[in-house]
Amino acid sequence: MSEVSAPKPLLEIKDLAITFSTPEGPVNAVRNANLTVMPGETVAIVGESGSGKSTTALSAIGLLPGNGKVSAGQILFDGEDLAQAPEKRFVELRGNHIGMVPQDPMSNLNPVWKIGFQVKETLKANGLAGDKPNERVAQVLADAGLPNPAARANQYPHEFSGGMRQRALIAIGLACRPRLLIADEPTSALDVTVQQQILDHLDTMTSELGTAVLLITHDLGLAAERAEKVIVMYKGQVVESGPALELLRNPQHPYTKRLINSAPSLAAKQGVEVKTPHEEQAAKNDNVLEVKDLTKVFDIRKGFGRKDKFTAVDKVSFAVPRGTTTAVVGESGSGKSTIAQMVLNLLEPTSGEITFDGQKMSKLSEKELFKFRRRVQPIFQDPYGSLDPMYSIYRTIEEPLRIHGIGSTAEREKKVRELLDQVSMPASTMHRFPNELSGGQRQRIAIARALALQPEMIVCDEAVSALDVLVQAQVLELLQQLQDELGLTYLFITHDLAVVRQIADDVVVMERGKMVEHASTDEVFTSAQSDYTRNLLNAIPGATLL
Amino acid sequence: MPENLTPNPEAGAPRGKREGKVSNYKIEHFVAPISETPLQGVDAVKETGKPLSMWAEAWRSLRKRPLFIISSILIVAIIVVAALPNLFTSVDPTHCVLENSNGPAVSGHPMGYNFQGCDIYSRAIYGTRASLMVGVFTTILTVLLGTTIGALAGYYGGWLDAVLARLGDVFFALPLILGAIIMMQLPVFRDNKSPWTVIVTLAVFGWPQIARIARGAVIEVRNADFVTASRALGLSRFKALLRHVVPNSLAPIIVVSTVNLGVYIVAEATLSFIGVGLPPDIMSWGNDIASAQTQLRSNPMVLMWPALFLSVTVLSFIMLGDAVRDALDPKARKGA
Prior knowledge:
Chain A is of the alpha/beta class and 546 residues long. Helices cover 37% and strands 26% of the residues of chain A. The relative contact order of chain B is 0.12.
């Protein structure tokens, strides 16, 4: 960052308005948006989905979807107005002036081309390949922190993990040393520890190159930690902007305040006691679920009858006292979801024993199993996949009652109304269909369906991970409230330690199929025993800020 | 928002990693007036407007499409013709007078006469029923057979899938017309020629296509969370297939079968044309085209009229299929 006497902003967006033409008429996605990025500075745009944050950033690189148009305002890049610039001008700018790191590392690399080829393509398009393009490619990949870059360049995307793919995408984005890098949720799909590594590396690289970064994220903690300046967007408008730390410590707009109060990563460190402890239940030594030496080994076919064994869950033991919440935490591939599947009896354990309310599950007959289904219910991660799109909300919630032959039609309808009320949805929702509801609302319907059979235990498999922070906070609160009212027991599977603080009494930390820590939530957060847990805790973005 | 460009006095002090950054520039703390973006309730439920199922939504977008409107008007007209042919002509199609052979159009006989001296218009009108019947029933049979087999194969997988998929491949490998010619020559079929023999023959060679589509759709749906959820609620595996998996796999099957309906009408005409389809005493477009071929040069209009009826019918069903696909799968829409 050079201290020029009168520095000019690199990117200046003035009174920007973006309109999408839809069959229902024009929709204003962004209104009166203003933002400034100085050379070498990192600016973060924060907002929930649909707030217009990505749309604003994409307009600066001319990548709005076909039906989107800049309808007013200016986008000044280095003094040049790009608001109505032709596609040709954007092609010149992309790559060597403005780079881009897209959100989803899984779908943004072409699976049929080698990584090296895809990097070379970028270099060639910008005339930077030089005489020895392959060496240049290796250099670029090495800069992005990929070990053994020459060999890596010869691999295909499916041979890379999510983190490595994101590094390759960062390599492509920065290959031509752009002056501005637009990073659209670059690490949302990754585990926190990987996220931390990648963002650290991105920081180092961009400060070396003097590249300014426009970081788009839904995580206020992350934004405050990585950017000098934070811009909060809500309903297509900038509601607050300012220096990152000041904004975090002294928010002015009610929406920003709301965001900060709901962000689990920030709440975790503020010591906000959202969770009411259930010590008296735990003390009774009345365990609903006991898992002993649970092991699951998968066979991986290698062709020609050869098989490899993969131990997904390795001798895991824990107990869940009645009326409490136990969180199972781990990164992807730690075996936490496999445990959930076995507890739900959707997957058979290789060895070990699951005891539910004193009954050994391996000894259950078909008939007893059917009864067991009533007592343990799942809630899944993807709110768009967990409700049958063909079923109205009424039929969805009524289905479990009908399967188990409970009540007459009129009684069932009454019950559905009660359940909707319990999850704070208006009764009129019952004639609607899942496609008319938002993610958080669908998740509440899934909870209502799970509650229909009055279960004793609910297994939440990443139940709030796909939701925006505010909605997430709302669903967590609902789960909390239902626990207090109905004495439910939760097994809460999550990758997000920050959420654990808000909901769990006990925590089981998993690493590659093994249980590395099992303690109360307070113990884990104040005095974690294993290095792995400490790493996870440290990687929570924004954890060091408040 | 104006940016103050004077250097920030706080900057410069080195800060530890991940402690937040302080800019070299002074950044103004901007707060929008609350009146501009009033806070709304978090995740408020939409309570206005009529609730819409997926099918209702598809219907709403379908009924506005010109392609759908044109094709459905044509199809309704075709169905009415097939059901009540005597509303459209008072001439008996079997009343043929040889002195009218290849006669030109006269009043009451707008398309003239064929070689046998029969009224072409009347024959085309009465021929609609056989053609439409073959198309509709073949489609129903293929959908029933194909969906059942494809859904079982896709849902259960394993050896059942292997057996059913190979069985389908055997039929799939035979060209429809070639297979149908051979099958129609079997004594059972040859001696009992009727629309039903044609329907059965076409269905035998048509189901694998539907089965493949059904299998793919079922495999896509069977691992959805809502299927797992209903299993966890206590629904048996087979009932989950019936209640959740199959209804969610129907869209591509409906699209393909609508287009196929037209294709089967053409196949019937082809079989009748080469003499192995409908018996000659049943009036159908295929039979009329076949008998017209002898005078293709002298009087081509004899062939043109039934061929035109056939084309319009087939085109209507293919257009309807296109419109339905666009409505059920918005991703396949061309352009914006």
